């Protein structure tokens, strides 16, 4: 077994960390407070090729894989971005670049990937619905064939980045859930031209006021006979579940990488404060009640990092990685939350002050226990598929 990262990943770590460390916590606080995309960082990442890592070289990318994307995201988060980093690597590099590179037709790859690599085209992903929630099998947004197009009707919720994106990777039903046999059949994944649909009045969206991760808006999306050309299907009609797993597993792996990086950043800030704060004549970090919980979280972070890298490594080799992706997401999200909670305790009353970034870490870390999949569903999956226990849902 070899636990050394490949040279490509080491180069990514150094390059992305160098960009991240040029931006201090005041910058990220401003982006969060102003609810704006970290455009300056994004442009640096694009220009350096750090968002096109998983796009094949013939389409303008670096020809690397999900492992390199995970390392990039982890180090953007750890270098200063924290939770704000996750969507910067999910929305376009993963949902767009990774998915089209693996499941797009040659014509789709030629059309979309060079633009994604150059930063000229951005994407988002839409699966969640108000009634279905985490039960993706039961989504009701449907696409009906109409000549050379599909007409799409339905509603999505918690769709992040719509306001920036050019195209939406949209999960629809072409066979209703009640009629599909097996139930995982009847899914079709479409590439929707957002600006065209908005101009036609068939797609509208409404931002949802939310607690954290305010550098990207999350939206309700309404689809009213959105017209999508039939050549914009990713994968095969009615067989989109295979495409879907190659979206959801990378999403969980990258969410885990963001959790690992966020936990590392939060731990650093907590430890810096614990070394400096000395109200009783010695640094509070000298007290075991302060030091031991931080040390335990460090152990959690290292374990989560190993599983994240393993899951990405498996995905890059087209090997099953569902269990590893779920375990990585579960452990990394918990490490990020424990780090934020402990940093709050270490800072005492000052954690409540917006002068420190702890409150932002606290808000951003909590949602990771619920998205992209709730930890209860992860545990149910592990119980059933890894432990052989009866299905609980």
Automatic annotation (TrEMBL):
Keywords: FAD, Flavoprotein, Oxidoreductase. Residues 238-369 form the Acyl-CoA dehydrogenase/oxidase C-terminal domain. One of its GO terms (molecular function) is acyl-CoA dehydrogenase activity. It holds the Pfam family Acyl-CoA_dh_M. Residues 7-120 form the Acyl-CoA dehydrogenase/oxidase N-terminal domain. It comes from the Bacteria. Its cofactor is FAD. Residues 124-226 form the Acyl-CoA oxidase/dehydrogenase middle domain. Belongs to the acyl-CoA dehydrogenase family. This is Acyl-CoA dehydrogenase domain protein. The lineage of its organism: Bacteria, Bacillati, Actinomycetota, Actinomycetes, Streptosporangiales.
């Amino acid at each position: 077994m070899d636990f050394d990262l490949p040279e490509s990943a080491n180069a990514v770590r150094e390059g992305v960390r160098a960009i991240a460390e040029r931006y201090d916590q005041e910058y990220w606080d401003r982006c969060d407070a102003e609810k704006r995309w970290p455009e300056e960082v994004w442009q640096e990442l694009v220009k350096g090729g750090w968002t096109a890592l998983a796009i094949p070289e013939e389409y303008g990318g670096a020809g690397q894989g999900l492992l390199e994307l995970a390392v990039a995201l982890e180090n953007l988060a750890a270098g200063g971005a924290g939770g704000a980093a996750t969507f910067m690597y999910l929305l376009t590099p993963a949902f767009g670049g990774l998915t089209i590179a693996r499941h797009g037709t040659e014509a789709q790859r030629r059309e979309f990937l060079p633009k994604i690599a150059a930063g000229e085209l951005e994407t988002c992903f839409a699966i969640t619905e108000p009634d279905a929630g985490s039960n993706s099998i039961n989504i009701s947004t449907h696409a009906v064939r109409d000549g050379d197009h599909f007409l799409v009707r339905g509603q999505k919720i918690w769709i992040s980045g719509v306001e920036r994106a050019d195209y939406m990777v949209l999960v629809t039903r072409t066979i209703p859930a009640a009629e599909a046999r097996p139930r995982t059949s009847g899914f079709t994944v479409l590439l929707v031209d957002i600006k065209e649909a908005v101009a036609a009045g068939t797609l509208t969206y409404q931002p949802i006021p939310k607690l954290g991760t305010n550098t990207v808006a999350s939206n309700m999306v309404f689809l009213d006979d959105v017209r999508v050309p039939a050549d914009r299907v990713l994968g095969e009609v009615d067989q989109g579940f295979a495409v879907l797993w190659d979206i959801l597993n990378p999403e969980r792996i990258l969410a885990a990488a963001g959790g690992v990086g966020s936990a590392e950043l939060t731990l650093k800030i907590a430890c810096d404060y614990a070394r400096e704060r000395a109200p009783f004549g010695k640094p509070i970090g000298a007290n075991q009640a302060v030091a031991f919980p931080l040390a335990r979280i460090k152990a959690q972070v290292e374990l989560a990092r190993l599983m994240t890298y393993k899951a990405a490594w498996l995905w890059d080799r087209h090997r099953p990685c569902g269990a590893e992706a779920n375990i990585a997401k579960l452990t990394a999200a918990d490490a990020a939350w424990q780090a934020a909670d402990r940093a709050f305790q270490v800072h005492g009353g000052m954690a409540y002050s917006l002068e420190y970034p702890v409150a932002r870490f606290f808000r951003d870390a909590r949602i990771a226990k619920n998205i992209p999949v709730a930890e209860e569903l992860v545990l149910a999956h592990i119980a059933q598929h890894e432990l052989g226990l009866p299905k609980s849902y």
